Automatic annotation (TrEMBL):
GO MF term list: DNA binding
Ranges annotated as biased composition (Basic and acidic residues): 81-94
Positions of the UniProt region annotated as Disordered: 60-94
Protein name from the UniProt record: H-NS histone family protein
Length: 112
């Protein structure tokens, strides 16, 4: 079976692979829902007995570990829109629309 949609075709192989992926994802979602339900029950039981999860499992992580990689410092702006001082550009990456509109007069906007 081929499904035609304007300029592309989906073959049986692609459809079958997508259906398998969807089924696997749904099974994983159900598994995670079960884990969440079990955790909620354990927390409720511990609470009924007067304990916290941290007291019962002191070595268990309470939250996801944060990255130890330091963040890059923000690049200071090299250009500022003289008509609207809130709009700036560091000179890196894609040019914002206000820089494109300024065109050749960009040096007038350089931050000193």
């Amino acid at each position: 079976m081929k499904v035609q949609h304007e300029d592309y075709y989906m073959t049986d192989k692609i459809i079958s692979a997508l259906e398998k992926k969807i089924a696997a994802d749904q099974a994983e979602l159900e598994r995670l829902k079960g884990i969440t339900g079990a955790r909620d029950k354990v927390e409720a039981l511990a609470s009924d007995l007067g304990y916290t999860m941290q007291e019962l499992y002191p070595d268990a992580p309470t939250t996801r570990a944060k990255s130890t990689k330091p963040r890059k410092p923000r690049t200071p702006p090299m250009y500022r829109n003289i008509h609207d001082g809130r709009k700036t550009w560091s000179g890196k990456g894609d040019k914002p629309q206000w820089v494109i509109d300024v065109g050749a007069d960009l040096e007038l906007h350089r931050v000193k």
